[in-house]
Amino acid sequence: MKLMVTGPFGIGKTTFIRSLSEIPTLHTDETMTLAGAPLDNLTGMPPGKATTTVGVDFGRLTLPEDIVLYLFGTPGQERFLPLWSDIARGALGALVLADTRRLEASFEAMNLIEEAGLPYAVAINRFPSSPPARTDHLRAALDLHPATPLVLCDARERRGCLDVLIALTAHVLDRLPREPEP
Question: Which domains are seen in the chain, by residue range?
Answer without folding.
Answer: 2-36+48-175 (3.40.50.300)
